[in-house]
Design brief:
By secondary structure, this protein is of the alpha/beta class. The chain has 9 helices and 7 strands, in the order H-E-H-E-H-E-H-H-E-H-H-H-E-H-E-E. It starts with 18 loop residues before the first helix and ends in a 5-residue tail after the last strand.
Amino acid sequence: MFGSTGSGQDVSGQQTFTYEEMKAAVDATHALGKRIAVHSYGPSGARDAVRAGADSVEHATDMDDATIAEMVRRGTFYVPTIDHNRYYAENGDRFGYAPGHRERLEDFIRRNLETTRRAVKAGVRIAMGSDAIFTMFGENTRELGWFVKAGMTPEQAVRTATSNAAALLGQEGSLGTVTPGAHADLVAVEGDPMADIDAVIHGVRWVMKGGVVVLDRTSAH
């Protein structure tokens, strides 16, 4: 659900649905046993999404302390998606964005990172997201580097893409864990991501999906 405007060319974050409308959407979604995420570049849409009981808010820059505290109380997930705007900023000319887009996006990234830093410090549950497709699959783990900049340890950052993401999706025990009965989705990297989080981006050497090896670069090393 779109709680505010927001795109590569529009980071104004103007709220698009009222609290009452969001609450109706949340209640209807939960009545069907589903989960609901609310896209909100701006703080007011995020505030009302949290109050309405959304399972997660995406982007949500400039949230105030009261909203962040309410997220902690409710267990609302935050999916910051910082890196996708880096991609927009670097490729905006190719996309035909209006002049000044890079400066606007870089300012938004700075504020997005600061909001994430405050959320991390407060103890908000955070999951990694890519705002696909523009970040492109294979590059989406660049987001983890931003999380380390926001104050997470590398281990905490990895959890946002594994066990935390599984919890957000209601897939605990099936995804995001290496345990009996879970999907055998495994990645081996060259280097130690607990020491250098960028190893999860540049060091991928072996991938197993559902028990089947789909990438093997180990023979070249």
